[in-house]
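Field: sequence (string)
Field: structure_tokens (string)

Example rows 1 and 2, in order.
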Amino acid sequence: MEIIPSHPLFFILFLWFSLGGAREHSLYGTLESSTRTIVKRSINSITMHGRPKQGYCIDVLIGTPSQKFSVVLDTGSANFAVSGNAKHQPYFNSSRSSTFEDKKTPVQVDYVQGSWNGTVGTDFIKFCPTCEMGSIDIASIDDSSNFFIDSDLWQGILGLGYQDLTQPREGNVNAPLQTMRRSGILSDTFVITMCGRKNMSHDNLNIFGSFIYDGSHDTTGFFTTNVLKAWYYQIEVTGIKINDKLLDIDCNRYNHPGAFVDSGTTNIILPSDVFNEVFLAIYKFGADTKLYTNITVLSEFMKGNTLLCVPDKETVFKAFPNVEIGLARNATASFYINVPPQQYVRQTYDSIKASSQNYCFEFGFERGSGYLMLGAAFIEYLDVLHDTRTSTLGFRLATCNITEPTVVKTISGPYPRGSRCCLGWTTFTIIYQYAINITLYYVNIPLILHYMMFTIT
């Protein structure tokens, strides 16, 4: 989940960091052109579970004796919190834990969607009955708004972002990433694999994946990019290709004020002006296929105003192109990860639950207020290596054993980066882009409908 930056000096600090000049980082690991699937797996992994649009969860044990909860695994925030009252069952009853210590620290966390407030204490956590346990700051949620989407599925959130994201910003609350690494229950390197659903059957409601937390994963075959700043997992996007054609967009528009990888976000969220260009390119491809005679439906679907419902679950993907997103290797090279239509044309949980004859889908790209966020629509079918020692993220193809839809996932590179994309940014560029993002956030600039520009006979 993306939390809302609230510090008054946020933009000043961002300018200070950005103006540090261009830095070329070394690549950790070997980067080569590849579409192969890595099959080796660690036996020390936790199964992830969940439902579409409701997050990927793991089970944790808290306190003495242990109380079991399912929590969303979220790299876009940095607090650990579980339900603290009977309104959302099960809830953490701190009075029943002999190891709980109340820090009496009030906390509130606001996400893009939803918020909660509560009180922070400390207790022990472990990932399985026989696993190592360690102390962690834990917030008992007293009240919330639009946070518990489905309390039957999960009762809290484990934020694995860096300390600078922890709320409150000024206080004695430690990020789970920091305390779990210090106590040894979380390795300096961990791998998150998100696989989506096993098939498109109306009888199958669940998504699945794995979390390798102890550093025992295989380290070969990762394509690696640098974490530019340790708060979110901030990376650099170098380009977007639609149907193998690179969009003519200066990469500063992707990366200011920031581009992040976030396991707690469902869609790929793009800055408004970038979304417009991606929208037009995808829409033109769909219109040219002539699979949809009512192009208004296609347009409204892509803008998130309506579902796309069809009786044939495979034909729907033919109207949408392959998308590739480039990430920086260093100042001179990049690699591309494809996002096939089977990933960003996403079957809806509500239609699955209704067991209707039609298959209904939502668009996996979303207009944002400035930031670029790579959520599950990008991450699924990848092993994502979070290396806090070298401040890098690694990506390789995962073995997910999906029976349908047929997904062709690839990672390729390295490729030389274009002259319009650089790690160094001028003061003018940063201020200009920030002004544009502020304007887009507060002013609703309507998108000119593409069917006014393209005519289908």
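Row 2 begins here:
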Amino acid sequence: WVREFMIKQWYQRRVRGKGEIGLHELQQEAMGYFILLETNFMKQGIQKAVSLERREEKSLASSIVDDTCYVIQKSVQRAISSKNVDTTCAMINNAASILSVDVCKVLLDVIITGYPTSSSYSWNQQGTEEQMKEQREAFLTALNNARAIIENILKLAKGFEAKCEKNFTEEMMKKVHSCLSCLRDVQSDFSEVLRKGEASLCKVAVYSKLHPVVAEVTSTSHILSEDSFLSLQLEDPWLQEVVKMFGEVVVPLESLLHTEIYHSIVSTSISEMTEYLEKLVMMCSFSQLGGLMLERRLRFLSTYLSSLSRWSAREQFARLNYIALLLCAEQLSEVSEIFFISSPLSIQDVRKCLKLRTDFRREEIEKIIN
């Protein structure tokens, strides 16, 4: 149609007596119309994809992911087939803008509504279990959509680059690479949606249940007798409750979320638990056996939680493990040797930890740690 447009324009101007017109000028005019039409088609196509969004029963993401990818792919490929580098760059930039403004905003609006719980619906809102279930599904789907679109942007950029290399010179490709870089940068907008969504999900669905269970560590004494220590080795109610909480709250999310999102949630939850547990431990008093029991609990949790994630939890437990190591010391003389191990704690923190031991004298602690 571009060639037909140029011939028609050339003929009309000759008939009207406007003289000759260069082919380059006609081409530029045709490409201008093409960009307007194609951008409008792309925008309307994506808006329709959003309005007709649906999710298959066994799918984590909705149709908006594939539909928007398809519309953008076809529009930019048509621009590339024009063999005009400026037109191609304009369409790539427009695709990036539409993704950022139109698609990303739709997902962000869903995320902002939050992940609902029973307390989210008050009596005057007349909320039902069905409404809560639908909102939860919408929230999780928006998270999965954001992750899938990030992956699709990379695939699109790679595909466009390969096609452009077949149609443009090396000098022209410098322009294309600059535009593709802008397209890839749109990932940061969707990554921000992911960050907000994950933070909201963790706060509402995980932390609200994690904190009360972990806080129970302060409800029992850590100055243990040998009998108490042996009894806890056989059955540790606190440890069982923590494992149960992760099993009932975090593990079920694996079947509902994109793999990357699930592992991110697990890792974030582990970090939250270790930071919170450290604050609680620093409020307790310990005997050596109490320190040994803490070390045993941490070792078990580190192994268990590492099994839930693709990443080891060892680094997240580093500070707590070092605290337990200090609290396990049989005598203060051992501490100076422990302290020279690569310590994640400051000297001030080490002093605070040692003062948790009821059998260590404060003046001796000050002498050893100086």
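free_text_note (row 2): Confidence is low (pLDDT under 50) at residues 14-21.
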